[in-house]
């Protein structure tokens, strides 16, 4: 009887530890505010909150304008979320905000209200209209193949802060 109880306890311990390992390996559900752009990134909820945190932390704010039903936004989001360098910089060096509506700051749409559009705001709360992508007709848009340009622009935003 004691031998059977001991064996049963060992089986229960083994099963529960395997179950715990299986649960840990499950992908965690996406953070609501990430909307798929990076679940390990801390996202600001509003533009005003992002500005506040940028000023307080002396980090630039990166604002991603997008729409859920936009195929170009979806394509950019997928490569953005999978790029380790972008994710690391976003987690550690930026205040991040993704919005699916226009903000009240008209400086965030200097050449129109299109998506996807990525803008940077420095800690002095200046919209950096000088940090642009590679398209002359949509200065702040990026396509999946433009990640090297986006990475360079993220680094530029960081350099601008360090030089001030």
UniProtKB/TrEMBL annotation:
Keywords: Signal. Residues 1-20 form the signal peptide. InterPro entries: AGR/TXD, Thioredoxin-like_sf. It comes from the Eukaryota. This is Anterior gradient protein 3 homolog.
């Amino acid at each position: 009887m004691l031998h059977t109880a001991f064996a049963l306890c060992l089986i229960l311990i083994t099963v529960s530890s395997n179950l715990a390992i299986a649960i840990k390996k499950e992908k965690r559900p996406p953070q609501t505010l990430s909307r798929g752009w990076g679940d390990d990134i801390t996202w600001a909820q509003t533009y005003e909150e992002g500005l506040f945190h940028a000023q307080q932390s002396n980090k630039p704010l990166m604002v991603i304008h997008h729409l859920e039903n936009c195929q170009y936004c979806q394509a950019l989001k997928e490569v953005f979320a999978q790029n380790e360098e972008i994710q690391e910089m976003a987690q550690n060096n930026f205040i991040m905000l993704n919005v699916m509506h226009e903000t009240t700051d008209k400086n965030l749409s200097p050449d129109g209200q299109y998506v996807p559009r990525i803008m940077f705001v420095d800690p002095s709360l200046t919209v950096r209209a000088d940090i642009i992508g590679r398209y002359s007709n949509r200065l702040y848009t990026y396509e999946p193949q433009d990640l090297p340009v986006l990475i360079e622009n993220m680094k530029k935003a960081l350099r601008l802060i360090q030089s001030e």
